[in-house]
Design a protein that fits this description.
Number of domains: 1
Strand content: 15-25%
Helix content: 25-40%
Strand order of the largest sheet: 1-3-2-6-7-8-9
Radius of gyration: 16 Å
Shape: globular
CATH topology: Rossmann fold
């Protein structure tokens, strides 16, 4: 089981979000924004921030760092590390299973991630065999898109997907995010797309939109 940082809700946990960091970061990366989401004083959303394994990353001269999978070239959607992506999906499936064991229903679990973490969230959530509450994919793209048609889970054909991207992103070009959105839309998924005047980061209007989306997904 991956090491995780957890933030417990003020009320009894009745939902969970598993939030994956980007390349080279760790589980602390998005912890500071939890209090900025406006979830209210008595929400029941448990935040789970896992740490990716440490592995060599080709694009960074083989340097060891936290990464969900290898990136083999500047065009990040080329020469994709299928084995690494699928291994990370297995790890996230285990975290979902742990939340279920702790009493959280699958339909009350959200997968989220930024950049590499968002790619793994999309890959995993669209294939998970039980219906989830949603996928939140920030500044990212759909990896192994050509396999989705054969691997997609029927249980998550109607899963809500929130995608957000900066229109000046130099790391994951917004055109790649848009192409991923279009691929999922053609496959029948409803994607809630958001663009912001920023680079490879998050901004306060985006955080506010995330908070509203989470509230809508998890309200009783």
């Amino acid at each position: 089981m991956l090491e995780c940082i957890e933030i417990q809700p003020p009320a009894a946990a009745d939902a969970a979000i598993i939030w994956l960091h980007g390349l080279g970061a760790d589980g602390n990366d998005f912890r500071p924004i939890v209090d900025e989401l406006g979830l209210g004083p008595s929400h029941g959303l448990r935040f789970v921030f896992p740490n990716a394994p440490i592995r060599p990353v080709t694009i960074n001269n083989g340097m060891d760092m936290r990464a969900w999978y290898d990136i083999k070239g500047m065009a990040i959607a080329d020469k994709q590390d299928r084995e690494g992506i699928e291994d990370s999906a297995t790890e996230i499936n285990a975290l979902i299973g742990r939340e279920i064991e702790r009493g959280i229903a699958p339909e009350r679990i959200i997968l989220a991630g930024f950049s590499q973490g968002g790619a793994v969230a999309l890959h995993t959530g669209l294939r998970y065999p039980k219906a989830l509450a949603g996928i939140m994919a920030l500044s990212t793209y759909l990896p192994l898109a050509e396999l989705l048609g054969d691997q997609a889970s029927e249980a998550n054909r109607n899963i809500p997907v929130f995608m957000a991207h900066g229109n000046a992103d130099p790391v994951v070009p917004m055109t790649l995010g848009q192409a991923s959105r279009e691929h999922m839309t053609r496959a029948g998924y409803a994607v809630d797309w958001h663009e912001y005047p920023m680079q490879h980061q998050v901004c306060m209007p985006e955080i506010q939109d995330i908070g509203q989306w989470l509230t809508a997904r998890l309200e009783r």
